[in-house]
Automatic annotation (TrEMBL):
This is RNA polymerase sigma-70 factor, ECF subfamily. InterPro entries: RNA_pol_sigma-70-like (IPR039425), RNA_pol_sigma-70_dom (IPR014284), RNA_pol_sigma70_r2 (IPR007627), RNA_pol_sigma70_r4 (IPR007630), RNA_pol_sigma_r2 (IPR013325), RNA_pol_sigma_r3/r4-like (IPR013324), WH-like_DNA-bd_sf (IPR036388). It comes from the Bacteria. GO terms for molecular function: DNA binding; sigma factor activity. It holds the Pfam family Sigma70_r2.
Length: 169
């Protein structure tokens, strides 16, 4: 698209977007969906430069027709039929800081029961985010050894948590 089309589209947007949004809002009753309809209509206009060349009245009529069709398509979509709108938002799940502290305390206690090699790779991989390659280079051991220590260390960690009744067997 050339600069003339871009300038025409910008002018059409500036002039018609507010009215187009009000029209879409009246059709949908949903502010966010109305904004999406305006964006989709302008995108389709951007992809149809021949409409821009017809001039301002034709482009405006075309935009409003496209907006109406976008709303109809949305209403007919399977997603729209399956969605249930509710004015009430679900309760936000809140984590109890005491539970988090207890979990951290139990994990720390269980980690101390592991061998130093297993504990080192688990802490560095899962808490510090180091990769197997980084751990291997830093510990001066082959990558396979790091993977093995991670595997057996996690297995020992799970077993220790099971013994405390904190995980499923």
């Amino acid at each position: 698209m050339n600069e003339t089309h871009t300038a025409l589209l910008q002018a059409l947007h500036d002039e018609h977007a507010p009215a187009l949004w009000r029209y879409a809002l009246r059709l949908t009753g949903d502010d966010q969906l109305a904004q999406d309809v305006v964006q989709e209509s302008l995108l389709r206009l951007w992809n149809s430069p021949e409409i821009l060349e017809q001039g301002e009245p034709a482009s405006r009529a075309w935009l409003f027709t496209v907006a109406r069709n976008v709303v109809i398509d949305e209403r007919r979509s399977a997603r729209s039929r399956r969605e249930v709108r509710s004015p009430d938002l679900p309760d936000v799940s809140r984590t109890d800081p005491i539970d988090s502290a207890l979990d951290a305390w139990v994990i720390t206690d269980v980690l101390t029961q592991l061998t130093p090699d297993h504990r080192t790779v688990i802490v560095r991989a899962y808490y510090m985010g180091q990769s197997v390659a980084e751990l291997a280079a830093e510990l001066e051991v082959p990558e396979g050894t790091v993977r093995s220590r991670l595997f057996y260390g996690l297995r020992a960690l799970r077993l220790a948590l099971q013994e405390r009744g904190l995980t499923r067997r």
